[in-house]
Amino acid sequence: MPHNSQISLSIPLQMQLLHHLLSQPVWFLIFSSLGLFSLLKHVTHLIGFIFISFLRPPKCLKSYGSWALITGSTDGIGKAFAFQLAQQGLHLILVSRNPDKLSAVSHQIQATHPNTKVKIFPLDFTTSDLPSGIRKLETFLQGLDVGLLINNVGLSYQWAKYFHEVEEEAWMSLVRVNVEGTTRVTKAVLKGMVERKRGAIVNMGSGAATVIPSHPFYAVYAATKAYVDQLSRSLHVEYKSHGIDVQCQVPLYVATRMASRVAAIHEPTMFAPSAEEYARAAIKRIGYEARSMPYWGHALQWHLASAFPEFLVNLWRYSIGIRKRQRCR
Ligand SMILES: NC(=O)c1ccc[n+]([C@@H]2O[C@H](COP(=O)([O-])OP(=O)(O)OC[C@H]3O[C@@H](n4cnc5c(N)ncnc54)[C@H](OP(=O)(O)O)[C@@H]3O)[C@@H](O)[C@H]2O)c1
Predict the structure, then answer these.
(1) pLDDT of residue 172
(2) So where are the chain's domains?
(3) pLDDT bracket for residue 2 (50, 70, 90)
(4) pTM to 2 decimals?
(5) Whole-number percent of the chain with pLDDT over 90
(6) Which protein residue's CA is at the shortest distance from atom 38 of ligand 1?
(7) Residue 206 CB less than 6 A away from ligand 1
(8) Which CATH architecture has domain 60-327?
(9) Is any atom of ligand 1 closer than 6 Å to the C-beta of 289?
(10) 275 C-alpha vs ligand 1 centroid, how far in Å?
């Protein structure tokens, strides 16, 4: 009975509310509806962000296969990934240019994770004969159940430069490492994944190509990362039904040697985490979205940047570039 009386009370109230609403001017109704939709959109985004960042369980990375290959694994984000993946129980193939640094990282990993098998493969991605290096890598990988590929190796400019100032050798190296290297290693590893019907690939993109509308004075770097982003998102769709999860991760600044060089970031902060903190967040995202920004402080910056008009963000980036150029003189 109390239930019925509640209903009989609420119906006149609803009618009153409806009548009140209909008596409002049309402009008021339109703006209120738009406000309500916008609020709902923001609340939905916030709930999604909290779930993905803090509550969603990570995938079991060993289920993709027992080996992980990481390029650019002797420093920064790649090295941090290697330690995180060893902790997940994966065996590692470390690919980077410097054999001594590769051995040193391999020993460090085995000292802390004695059950992890580590293989090293020296390869300089700037070499003009990259195809032959990749063929050797393919041979090296034969018989290994490589379930996870972290295409991390990447180069940026040494200094902020106008496009016409960038030397041929510098931009060619950048294209070779960021575009050709990523594409060739993906192809080399993907074949085995298709045969085994399982695998995960993470390509390291950058907020420089996806968050900010432009990256003046670093144009070729941003353009190569836009390539990585689009390649990954297309492969994500192409290989989903083959059991292979392809993802582009888009970090903003991470306190590594690269960030210290291009942005004078020498210490981790809330908005520029250490490589270890980034990698801890990053491995929880593997296997999910086609494009992912794993670190919450980066996602917050992305959200703030998207609230500003494009021309203001462009002006801001331009002035940062000009200041960097002045500092370098
Ligand atoms: N740090 C950031 O703020 C940031 C932001 C967005 C995206 N990213 C992306 O994240 C990835 C990793 O960046 P990071 O900051 O960790 O870079 P990093 O600290 O400079 O480390 C780069 C790694 O790649 C290796 N490497 C460099 N050139 C190579 C070459 N020609 N051939 C083979 N290996 C080479 C380095 O080897 P050595 O140890 O021998 O030098 C090192 O292990 C890059 O793709 C970068 O574009 C970084």
Answers:
(1) 96
(2) 13-52, 60-327
(3) very low
(4) 0.91
(5) 79
(6) 74
(7) yes
(8) 3-Layer(aba) Sandwich (3.40)
(9) no
(10) 11
The confidence band for 325, taking pLDDT boundaries of 50, 70 and 90, is confident
Q: Is 72 in the pocket of ligand 1 (CB under 6 A)?
A: yes
Max avg pLDDT among 28-42, 234-248, 297-311: 234-248
pLDDT greater than 80 at residue 28 = yes
Q: 218 an active-site residue?
A: no
Residue nearest to atom 22 of ligand 1 (CA): 72
- Residue 38 CA to ligand 1 centre (angstroms): 39
In SS3 terms, the chain reads as CHHHHHHHHHHHHHHHHHHHHHCCCHHHHHHHHHHHHHHHHHHHHHHHHHHHHHHCCCCCHHHHCCEEEEECCCCHHHHHHHHHHHHCCCEEEEEECCHHHHHHHHHHHHHHCCCCCEEEEECCCCCCCHHHHHHHHHHHHCCCCEEEEEECCCCCCCCCCCHHHCCHHHHHHHHHHHHHHHHHHHHHHHHHHHHHCCEEEEEECCHHHHCCCCCCCCHHHHHHHHHHHHHHHHHHHHHHHHCEEEEEECCCCCECHHHHHHHCCCCCCCCCCEHHHHHHHHHCCCCCCCEECCCHHHHHHHHHHHCCCHHHHHHHHHHHHHHHHHHHC
**Catalytic option among 64, 157, 221, 278:** 221
- Quote the ligand 1 centre to 76 CA distance (angstroms): 6
Is the pLDDT confidence value at 71 over 60?
yes
